[in-house]
Amino acid sequence: MDKAIKRYFPLFALPTLVAFTIGFIVPFAMGIYLSFCKFTTVTDAKFVGLSNYAKAFTDGTFGHSLWYTALFTIVSVLLINVLAFAIAMLLTKGIRGTNMFRTVFFMPNLIGGIVLGYIWQLILNGILANFGRTLVYSATYGFWGLVILMCWQQIGYMMIIYIAGIQNIPGELIEAAKIDGATAPQVLTNVTLPMVMPSITVCTFLTLTNGFKLFDQNLALTNGAPSDMSQMMALNIYDTFYTRQGFEGVGQAKAVVFFIIVAVIAVGQNVLTRSKEVQQ
Amino acid sequence: MKKKSVATLLLLSMAASLFAGCGNGGNDSAADANKTDSASNAAPSTEAADTGDDAAAPAASGDGAVYYLNFKPEQDQQWQDLAKAYTDETGVPVTVVTAASGTYESTLKSEMAKTEAPTLFQVNGPVGLASWKDYCLDLKDTDLYSHVKSDDFVLKDGDAVQGIAYVIETYGLIYNKTVLDAYCKMDGAKVDSIDKINNFATLKEVADDIQSRLAEVSEAAGPDYNLAGAFSSAGMDSSSDWRFKTHLANLPIYYEYKDKGIGETDAIEGTYLDQYKQIFDLYINDATCEPAMIATKTGDDSTAEFALGEAVFYQNGTWAYQNIIDAGLLTDDDLGMMPIYIGAPGEENQGLCTGSENYWCINKNASEADIKATEDFLNWVVTSDTGRDSIANQMGFVTPFDTFDDGYTPANVLVDASNASIDAGQTQVSWNFSTIPSEGWKDGVGAALTEYAQGTGEWDAVKTAFIDGWKTEYEATHN
Asked: Which of A51, A84, A119, B289 pairs with A203 at a CA distance of 20 to 30 A?
């Protein structure tokens, strides 16, 4: 068995490895190199050292987008996970139409971010018009609009992961707890939650990175308006790249900084939640 | 474990070779830049050597091809047809790709990085040229350049002709002639003929008056009309905000340049910002919608309001003609265009805003054969009957080429209005917005205008974005 794996390793791993290299490693390395360059097209770059980073850090909008993104991520991670878990609990109780509900909740996930963004822009603007307001009236409106949109899109997906986790809990554990006289809240906090910890790790990781990387929905919903106040980091990078000639490298430098921030937070979160996982 | 370390090593070496590759690319471009310099210093011998150099590799491989990255989505179909006609006639393959609205720069950036890069592309003026001048062929010796009527329509870098405008456009305040005429005949009208509106004060009086009795004016104009405002919505959605952050902003810039006798500047003073404010106030207050709602109004909304008889005035240009007519209500007789009066001294003789932001550039990094094919294609476009018919009659472009003088002018009443304004001896306003330092400046002004309109910001923010923004954007892009 071991030998067979060794023999066929290249056959199975190589295509993926090549694809991964072309699609990820190469652009990533190029991206890092370009962040030290001044360029108009990516194949035609001139090394300029750290000046791009200097410009990136002195740009006020970058700082603003950083905390706006962080705030959005915190709110959306909490809301999405709590709601997804709650719905997962409901839909594992064996109520009628469970499968239909699961399908319905999952469906928004099948629609692309840009489309969702424009649909929700129409819906929210339609509602706000009754009050003589628009979504870009202030960054607060854009913020909550984005939170609603992301909840609608992601709760279904996370719910599926939680359902799988909950269904994996051995029935005898819960039964034993009940025989010992545990109340429903006690079962939840002492049995269910520790047992679905792996699902929580995955879901928090996904929602956390999705929150930070959010781009399509932000672009479609408000495009940063008013005055870049609802601009998240990915959009800020994109705008930097295209709105000023000679600033392509600065956008690239921001992208590298952005990568480091997201990587550190994601790894930290993983270590933290992993440590809470229990063995059966 | 061993396998893993081997794999890691492999990856690292790949990454390393990549770095090396990039490094070479960088050196190449530096060499290229030097070449441009020597070429633009115009020593004929150097240039000849240059061409020889470029021709060396691919020219032998056969005939060239043309790849045009088109800027104007409205004319995509016509360009495709024209390309096909040329291929049928000559056998030279012509590919036309049109970038989606508002994404030209990003599309161009990625296309130019490819091996099969566009041979023909566009820049929008001096500022656009700045990012692409290392890619622009000197068009001085082309047939195309020999047909340009005046050097006002080309972009130059030193002696080198780097871009040639192919469409001249005009914008102003498009108005509904039928409604305005009817208004002039009403009791208590502020003016008795449209000609009398030749300054901001009169324009404001008329607009305010119309706004105050919309139902009355609608009735006088006829059963098709149901006016909702004097001006169509000043939408600040990205499909429409360029009308204000760029085109309207051109007027204060124009007057300031004119006073100082300059053509560009590194720091604008905003001497005409008060006038900019009063025209924008007029647009948003005497309009079809509440000022707070303009943030989400699109270009289509605004066109529709005007074209369906809900508004009397609509700031836009000759290119909007087809969309207005297509809506089905208005005909040529209903349309007119007047200058945008902002309240500047002596504006009674101000004309419409005429200029171009569409310049053709040929990619000098393309193979010799492709460059030749592209030059031939462009020459064919402006000299052949098929080409001229397509440009003038189907695309509706007014061009700066002398080959179009014998009857190839588009049927467009807004173009007629622009010619009438020139014939009447009005001073045409030039397109100075092409000297705006960056898109970032426009975005800043646009955002400040939106916030001002919806009441969440002060006019001072517009001033800051206009004056300080100019300075910071200029510095950011010039060092």
From this structure: A119
- Contact of A134 with chain B, judged by CB distance below 8 Å, is answered with yes
Please state whether the peptide bond connecting residue A226 to the residue before it is cis, i.e. omega within 30 degrees of 0.
yes
Distance (Å, whole) CA A20 – CA B14: 12
Which residues lie across from B148 on neighbouring strands? B401
**CA of A180 to nearest chain B CA: how many angstroms apart?**
47
- Classify B407 as helix, strand or coil: coil
**Structure confidence by residue, pLDDT tens digits, A91-113:** 988 888 888 888 989 988 888 88
At A205, which amino acid appears? F
User: Which residues, listed in sequence order, are joined to residue B165 by a DSSP beta bridge?
Assistant: B359
Q: Tell me, what's the ipTM?
A: 0.75
CB distance from B460 to chain A under 8 Å? Answer: no
B130 Cβ partners below 8 Å, 6+ apart?
Answer: A245, B477
Comparing C-alpha atoms, which of B108, B167, B53, B141 is closest to residue B363? B108
Contact yes or no for B323/B394 (Cβ under 8 A) = no
> Which one is the CATH code of B41-168+356-405: 3.40.190.10, 3.30.450.40, 3.40.50.300, 3.40.50.450?
3.40.190.10
- Check if the beta carbon of residue B466 is closer than 8 Å to that of residue B248: no
Reported as a single tens digit per residue, the pLDDT across B388-445 is 888 888 888 888 888 888 888 888 888 888 888 888 888 889 888 888 888 889 989 9
A245 touches chain B (CB under 8 A): yes
Count of domains for chain A: 1
